[in-house]
Every structure is written in C-alpha cells, then in structure tokens.
Amino acid sequence: MRSSTALAVYDRHGDALFSLALLLCRDVDRAVDAVVATVTQACATASDPMSDARRKSLAADLWHRYASDPGAQASPQSPPPGCLPHPDGQSGEQEQALLGLVLFGCHTYGQAAALIGVSAPSAAVHLRSVLRRAADVRSDRRA
After folding, report:
1. pLDDT tens-digit series, residues 69-115
2. Angle at CA 103, nearest 5°, toward 48 and 45?
3. pTM to 2 decimals?
4. Could you tell me if 80 and 74 are in contact, meaning their C-beta atoms sit under 8 angstroms apart?
5. Residue 130: phi, psi to the nearest 5?
6. What angle do CA 98, 101, 106 make, to 5 degrees?
7. In this structure, are residues 14 and 35 in contact, taking their beta carbons and an 8 Å threshold?
8. CA 11, CA 51: separation in Å to the nearest integer?
C-alpha cells in the first residue's frame, strides 16, 4: 500500500466513514480502529480513491466489520449523544445503520437494505420513521 493512496482515500472519505463508524459502534476508539482498518485494507487494492463508488465499497466493508465484531456493537445502555429515541423502546440500531449507510456511505435505501439484510420496503418504513422523529424533535425544540 502506498501511503499517498491511503491519505487520498482518507482525505476524501475519512469524515464520512468515521461518522458512519461512530453511529454504528458509539465508541470513538473503536470507530477510529474500524476506519483505519477499512482504509488500510481498501488501499491494498488498486482503484480510484476519489469516487463515490469507492466510498460505497468502504462503507460496506465498514458495515461488515461492525456486524461481524460483537465487541464493536454498542451496548443497549449507551445510546449515542443526540440519538433519537426509538418509539417502542428498542435501540433502533437497524435504523441507525440504514441512515448511516445512506447519509455517509453513498448507498440508496435499497442498497443499504440489501447490505444489512432487510427488505427495501422495510428500510423505507424505518428511514421514514427516523425522519419523522427527527422532525418531531426539531419542532419540540422550537416551541
């Protein structure tokens, strides 16, 4: 791996990947480790470090790294700062993963759904729910 390639990948995609990793695992040290491992592994292969397709691939790798490492997953007792409450008391991790992959990982909702193993219609419902709760929180803060 050339360090200049890794730096170019990190410069272009690092902030978005770190945001996704932090959203998924809710731990700064684990998020940093996951991003470094993801960028390092990705730079072992030749491809354009600047493309959105590259970010999509990196985000998918980050998701797989998170999903396969039980230690990286957040405990239910530690909701992330500013996290929207889930209406039925669940952690909403699936919704957060969908939202993170769409916002930070250059995935469509259908691609994010396929990646984490839910149907596209279900993903749409989950994302709509997150956006509605966000709008409700924002409205409450204005009042």
Report:
1. 766 555 444 444 444 444 444 447 888 889 888 888 888 989 999 99
2. 25
3. 0.62
4. yes
5. -60, -45
6. 140
7. yes
8. 12
